[in-house]
Each structure stands twice: as structure tokens, then as C-alpha cells.
């Protein structure tokens, strides 16, 4: 079995982590053995935290460019793993990097082994590792609960949309009849001039499934006269034109948190006639199995890639659902989203707790003397 070291998950099975491609050689006779309880790190990525403790099988192997080592019997391996993944150690790795190209710095074992660490008595090491393991278990359980909730929420939303759109007497139209659809600004098309302004804009990366992520927003320079053409308004439904299959028709409703804010040409802006259609209902419908099936059916596709154009978006079939029914669906979807947000906050709190505990326990700020 071939293992790979990762930043967030330690050592993982290469065939499971890299599902669509084989990253190791067919001939692994020159690979290094790594036994249960041993460590391995990717020499060129250690400063990013790419190091792991082998707890998967009795014996596996890793790339020959990896460094493999084990601890002395008086060192608890789980405790040492926590130390090696701590922020203090990540900073120390960076100091010992030797590189000529950014992000390809190597930390040789001759330098790695000289880094000093704080080592309490063995019994205390084990106790600290147990505490941090328990927090990790709580995080895993919280993530699993969140995943289950997301599945239930998705199924419930799909059922609501299906019921509303297939109700007796519901008529159908196309999207351009109940909304204005337009593409955004094309990068590089606008030469700086006296009337140029630099404004934030949303890219495909900002438009996620069901929400808009503004953690990393770029700026674009456009003519002042073009601002209103590309400017987003609260309630606009944003859809991505595609790329990878998961980006085809992906979208959410813009809440106006940044104003003014523009959108890129790979992101369609759909502005509903609110007297007829609720943006939140439209976004939920387009994300439903029926909405997705339309995009998949008309998209231009190649291997693992697909895209739609504005004409296809305009011709998207949509049901004419009474506003009162749209409101009912929107309220139910909002409740599910609220539960998911609450679950995310619980997970974030556990991550903060783990970070604080690691800082205090691994640096000796909090000690747990263990009697013999």
C-alpha cells in the first residue's frame, strides 16, 4: 500500500485520496517502508505541515523522496505527532528550509532532527495526547452530524421544489420572461483612463453552491460609465457558466454585503421580476435536480468539463408558482440553512478549542501531572 502525506490529514492512502489519478510509480521497489507508529514527511512540503503518523496498516510504503523516522520508546508517538503539527514547529520548519524556488524548499533530516521540543514525562505526554484525541473525536462527530444534516436538508428542499413545481395547474415559462440575465465584466477589456475606477468583483470562486463566499474578493478596473451595467444589486441570483462539472450552473443569491460590487463575465447575473418571482425560490429551483438536469442537457461538454452560455440560461424552463407558495418554500429552506449554519458554528468552536488546547498543552502553559 502506497501512502501520501497531506497538510490536513497526515498520511493517507494514495489510491483513495487521489481518486482520479495515480501519483506513484508502477514500480515501487525503491519506495521506503513506513511501519505502524512511524512518521513520514514530504521533504519539500514539511513547512506546510505535510507530515503524518502511520496508523493505517502494519507496514506501508512512501515515495523515496520522503523522510521516514520513528521515536524512542520513551516518547509517545501520538504526543509527538501533535508537537510536529503545532504552529511552533511549522515556523521552525520554515527556518530550516533550503530552496531556490518558492514553496519547494526542502527540510533535510540532518536539520529536522536538531529542532528542540518540549518533552514532559511520558505519562503526561500520553494524557495530553488523549485529551487532544478526544477533541478530534468530537470534531469528527460534529462534521458527520453536519454531513447528515446537509443530506436531509438537500432531500427536503428537493421535495419541496418538486411539489411546488409539479402542483396541479402550475404553468411553465422560460427564465428570460421573469428575469433579466446578463454576463459580467471581461477582464483585460478595459484600458485604464481618466474615467477608470477600481472596484471589487465576484469570480467563479466566489459563487459557491447555495451561497456567495467573499473571503477573497479581487478588484477590477473598469470605465465609470460601465459600472451600472455590471453592478450587482441585493437579490441578484448569480450562476456560474461552468468549467468543472460541479461549477455548471452553480449559484446563490447576492445579499449586497459589498456595494458597489461587480461580477465577472463567467458569472451570470439573474435579476428577477420580484412581483412574479422570489430570488431565493429561483436559486433553490435552479439548484434542484430538475434545474441541474436542464443545464447538463444543454451544456457544451468535454471530458470532465461543461459550460453554458447566456442564450441557454435565458431559455431555462421555470415553473410559475404562486408567490405564497414560493414564500412557503423559501421559509422552509431558510430554516434548513439556519440549522446548517448553526452546525458550522459548532464545528468552528471545536476547532478553536483544539487550537487553544494545543497551544497551552504542548507549550507547557497547562500541565497535567500524572501520579505513578
UniProtKB/TrEMBL annotation:
InterPro entries membership: Restrct_endonuc_typeI_TRD, Restrct_endonuc_typeI_TRD_sf, Type-I_RS_S_subunit
Keyword S-adenosyl-L-methionine: no
Gene3D superfamilies: DNA methylase specificity domains (3.90.220.20)
Domain Type I restriction modification DNA specificity residues, every copy: 104-139
Keyword vocabulary terms for this entry: DNA-binding, Endonuclease, Hydrolase, Nuclease, Restriction system
Any one GO MF annotation of this record: endonuclease activity
Domain of life according to the entry: Bacteria
SUPFAM superfamilies recorded: DNA methylase specificity domain
Family: Belongs to the type-I restriction system S methylase family.
Protein name: Restriction endonuclease subunit S
